[in-house]
Amino acid sequence: TRYYVVGFAALLVSAWQLSTLSEAAHPLLSVLPALLCNGAFIIIVLSTTAMQTFHKLQHDETSFSHANQVKNILAQFGLAAGTALATLMMQWRSSFHYERLAESLNPSNPALRSTLDQLTQFFTTNDSAATAPRLALAQVAFWLNQEATLLGALDYFFAVSGFATLCLAMVVIGHFLRSWQVNQSGQRPT
């Protein structure tokens, strides 16, 4: 139980850290610790699960071999399903934020007009006056897409932190229920 608690706590810390990032975040101070916590989660939880799964099959080579093959098949399925779910959620949340951000980009918005004017002046110094407005608009579109993708990623990691919290709660509750059952039956815990 303690390995699962530590592992899911590491996932929670990793996801929470990544869900609170901003454009100004320093990669070494913000992203690297989160990635290390994510790596700790993978090592601790997967190795604990593998050891607990095959604990009773160590002495039967045939059953151990079959169980290992089934584990590998399920791992590949889980990896594919997880990647698909993560991609779908990122697409969904990025599209949602893109629509919301795009709503504020209308010709009557004074901030947009000011930004386009400044960008047009900037691009006029490097390119022709005819192409500068198109380059300015393309730059705003790039920023819009970049911001929508960042917000979608933040939503994704917030969802992962919720999943980690749920798993952590299930592990702790399961531990207390097992302890309670042992105390009720009068047996010594094994």
Class from secondary-structure proportions:
mainly alpha
In which range does the helix fraction lie? Answer: over 70%
Q: Average pLDDT, to the nearest integer?
A: 88
Helix and strand run? HHHHH
Task: Tell me the Rg in angstroms.
Answer: 25 Å
Written description of the protein model:
By secondary structure, the protein is mainly alpha-helical. The chain has helices at residues 2-19, 27-53, 61-103, 110-126, 132-185. Helix 4 crosses helix 5. The longest helix is centred in the C-terminal third of the chain and has 54 residues, at 132-185. The model has no long low-confidence stretch (mean pLDDT 88).
Comma- or semicolon-separated keywords:
190 residues; mainly alpha; 5 helices; 84% helix; elongated
